[in-house]
Write a structure and sequence with these properties.
- This protein is of the alpha+beta class and about 350 residues long.
- The protein has helices spanning about 5-15, 65-85, 90-100, 105-120, 130-135, 150-155, 190-200, 295-310, 310-320, and strands at about 45-50, 55-60, 100-105, 165, 170-175, 205-210, 215-220, 230-235, 235-245, 250-255, 260-265, 265-270, 285-290, 325-330, 335-340, 345, 350-355.
- It is globular and about 60 Å long.
- Adenosine-5'-diphosphate binds near residues 186, 260 and 303.
Length: about 350
């Protein structure tokens, strides 16, 4: 495909995912005490930018009720941030990590059970008990340090789901080893985008794009019935894109080492850790994008497949073709897509290797 055509598509994608600056609609006049229902022009996008979960987010919706729907969506994101944050002292997860036991709310129980499911599916590459390692590397405080091998060996003992007892009846959970801690960071944003989409639907919205950093979820098609075009960032040049996937009603979620990292003595250390070694995963992948109807699963898998590397990821996909599609970028500059994206993935990079 010609560069100019791709450039055009990327512009469309930027509009689709809301990375272009779009004017926020005027909010309700604070002096008017009666609630006012503001109708918006359904053919025009209404956008909202916010910062939560350590992430710049843009929500774009179409429909007469778009403004109210985005208010509800924003409230939901802030609520989930308060609930799931590992760093906020009021959060349920913070308290659980302090106490080493507790009774999970419905929602945290759901996320724990989904985490177990992804852990099993990926043979342990996704592990929600990763938090002690995240702390040791400084990813939680931005005070980065390469831990000593002995320290890592000790902390690896704590990344151990077999030492978590959990009842799916009453949602009571307890960590059997001292200092074990949980982290839904690899799955929380995918869950959040899925929740936002269902809230927008409840509010009567049929067309929307939720962009939570590298996590995008679209509702329906574009208002004209065509597919949304979601651009996938180029991990080697993060102001550019490697291509575009065309989707409706899907999450398109990317994990890459480039999203959060530090350098020490000329070596780069990023925030996706291999639960088997304690070190940032180095499997020859620069990014993994998962396309799935299930935002929570897509987020968990994007992290896990990055840890697993291309070969194991291919096998996993072949055994679970009905669950997701994927795009992989390798450190040798190669691009791989799964078969189901053959028509939906547009790029000017050749060759595109198709996994069948
Ligand atoms: P981002 O949150 O930057 O979009 P990811 O979805 O890949 O990227 O999630 C990375 C986050 O997941 C880390 O910040 C950490 O909280 C958590 N994490 C890191 N490694 C793992 C792992 N192997 N299994 C589960 N969670 C992980
Ligand atoms: Mg993830």
């Amino acid at each position: 495909m010609k560069k100019a055509v791709l450039a055009f598509l990327i512009i469309c994608a930027c509009l689709s995912v809301g990375c272009g600056k779009q004017s926020d609609m005027v909010r309700k006049d604070p002096e008017i005490s009666q609630p006012q229902i503001e109708e918006t022009d359904p053919s025009e996008p209404t956008s909202r930018d916010l910062f939560a979960m350590d992430t710049f987010m843009t929500l774009t919706a179409y429909g007469e009720n778009a403004l109210q729907a985005l208010d509800a969506a924003e409230d939901e994101i802030l609520r989930l941030d308060e609930l799931l944050s590992t760093g906020k002292e009021e959060s349920e997860i913070f308290r659980l990590n302090q106490d080493g036991e507790g009774t999970l709310s419905e929602e945290s129980a759901y996320l724990y059970e989904r985490s177990l499911e992804v852990n099993e599916l990926t043979d342990g590459a996704f592990d929600p008990m990763i938090y002690p390692l995240m702390q040791a590397w400084g990813f939680t405080t931005h005070e980065y340090a390469v831990p000593a091998p002995e320290e890592l060996a000790g902390l690896l003992e704590l990344v151990d789901l077999s030492a978590v007892s959990y009842s799916d009846k009453d949602h009571h959970i307890s960590f059997e080893k001292n200092k074990m801690e949980i982290d839904f960071g690899g799955i929380a944003k995918g869950y959040t985008s899925a929740r936002v989409v269902s809230i927008l639907k409840e509010q009567g919205i049929n067309h929307a794009v939720i962009s939570l950093g590298g996590n995008v979820q679209v509702l329906g098609t574009k208002p004209d019935g065509s597919l949304w075009k979601v651009a996938i960032r180029d991990p080697e040049n993060v102001s550019g894109f490697i291509g575009v996937v065309q989707v409706s009603d899907k999450a398109v979620i990317t994990s890459g080492g480039y999203e959060r990292y530090f350098e020490e003595n000329g070596k780069v250390y990023h925030h996706i850790l291999d639960p088997k070694t304690g070190y940032p995963a180095e499997t020859g992948l620069l990014s993994v994008t998962i396309v799935s109807e299930d935002g929570t699963l897509a987020d968990g898998l994007s992290t896990a497949l990055y840890v697993m590397g291309l070969e194991l990821a291919e096998t996993l996909w072949r055994e679970n073709r009905d669950l997701f599609e994927a795009v992989f970028v390798t450190d040798s500059g190669k691009l791989y897509i799964t078969e189901g994206l053959e028509k939906e993935f547009l790029t000017d990079r050749y060759p595109v290797n198709v996994i069948r």
